[in-house]
Design brief:
The complex is a heterodimer. Chain A is an all-alpha fold. Chain A has 14 helices and no strands. The longest helix of chain A is centred in the C-terminal third of the chain and has 31 residues. By secondary structure, chain B is mostly helical. The chains are: A mainly alpha, B mainly alpha.
Amino acid sequence: MTISWIQASILGIFASLSSMPGMAGSTIGNYTLGRPLVGGLVCGIVLGDMKTGIAAGVAMQLVYIALVTPGGTVSADLRAVSYIGIPLAMVAIHAQGLSATSANAADLAKSMGTLVGTVGTVLFYGTATMNLVWQHMGWRAVEKGDFKKLYAVDWGYPWISHLFFSFIPTVLMTHFGSSAVQALKTALPMDGIPMKTLFTVGALLPCVGIAILLKQIVEGPLDFIPFFVGFTFAASLKLNLVSVTVVSLIFAMIFYKLDMAISTNKQPVASSSGGAVIDDDEEEEDI
Amino acid sequence: MANTEKKVLSRKTLNRSFHHWFYGHLTAFSQEHMQTFGYLTSMLPIVEELYDNKEDQEKAMKTYTAFFNTEPQLGTIIVGITASLEEARANQVNSGSDGDVDDTTINGLRAGLMGPIAGIGDSLVVGTLIPVILGIALGMSDGGSPLGAIFYIIVWNLLGYFGMRFAYFKGYELGDKAVGILIGAQGKAVRKAIATVGGMVVGGVAATWVTVKTSFRLTNSSGKAYLVLQDKLDSVYPGLLTAAFIVACWWLMAKKNISPIKVMLILVVVALIGVLLGFFNPGLTY
């Protein structure tokens, strides 16, 4: 399997659309085209092997199932994962002669994709930095009261940033990377230490994705309880995800009602004439 | 000069403003001004309709040059709220009265809502909604079927578009009344409820889609295994090793402030040592 210039160019356009500040907007771009599952579908169609594309996309999606970018700090920009990592992983799966739906193919996809995906962080900061030029032009326009120019600044000029930091890197890396991946087969035997390590890493990486999300939700040790209850439902009771979600709703309802009951009970006491007395009592207890 | 006729934004203008935000909130992203330009382009149609003379337009647009960044999907509600506030300000200007909406109130409100909305949005949209739809889609695509990917594209985009649209118009309708709802006691209770759903769903996603297994076993002289570590661990708690690795990654990132990329590199080292010791073996052949 090789990747032609035309195929590489199509992947380059998708990379421009799908990055975190992508040209398709975050709902259609980052959160749709940028998801490795969707990237797998696109790459599968472009490279003419949908089954391998989807299988690689499913595997990669697990690593990045929970990609949160709090305050614009980016741990991974998915344009490189979905449109450089997946195509190269597909080539690697073919080169190693693995069955597309096997667990080994999935592990290979994960480690290949994640390895290449780290490039995404560089591309992200490149794009964001180049956008400063267009923003500077925007500020000048605002000062002059030439507001129509804001549309060009927001929707037009950033394409130039993406030409340099999405399109060109994707085209070059997918086109030339595919022959490098082919050569890998002869250089690294499957039962050698490097390949075994690469596959093991692939199985471990999704833990990072889940942990990133937990970081958002967990503030104290008690916040781990919902996570482990959900984990137990799926691992021990074999419930599927929709079932887990349905069960979780009852807990959400209880917590909501409880919180509302507590806050409505508090207010009348605090605002009544007896409030001051109670406040005094609390202060004494604190001492 | 005073014009007593009350100005009301047309549906067409509100729609334009919403679509400018829906598309352009992040396209001109930089580390310095993240969503500021997206905000400017979505306020422009509103300002143009409300103010006839250029000077008033410039004055109004200056308000939105302040830094802005939040979770973009749920954050649409803030754009809706400011559209309503701008309308109120325009009516003050036209009637010549000294009202209570000015630059400071609008920007104070924007700055005050950015953080809480980002918190709720991250756990609601990125933490719960997307993993749940993706989790269902992953199951449908197991075995290389495109069905799951197509399912995700359709469901997420419908929810994303109409959800953001709802948030925008709800924000416009409620105006500054929305603030109390979003960051008051009810907002806090909703946030806690969402975090509970999020936590349980993430647990389910982890148990369903992440598998860490050890190949470590002890065999007797005839080659029969008398200790298979993976089976022993699973008899204590199914998925114990997977859960332990996830908690370890969380601990490194949350408690030791190690970046996700570095945690990934640590896992490479752990994998190499594990392979050398025979703890991990993916069991590969050509």
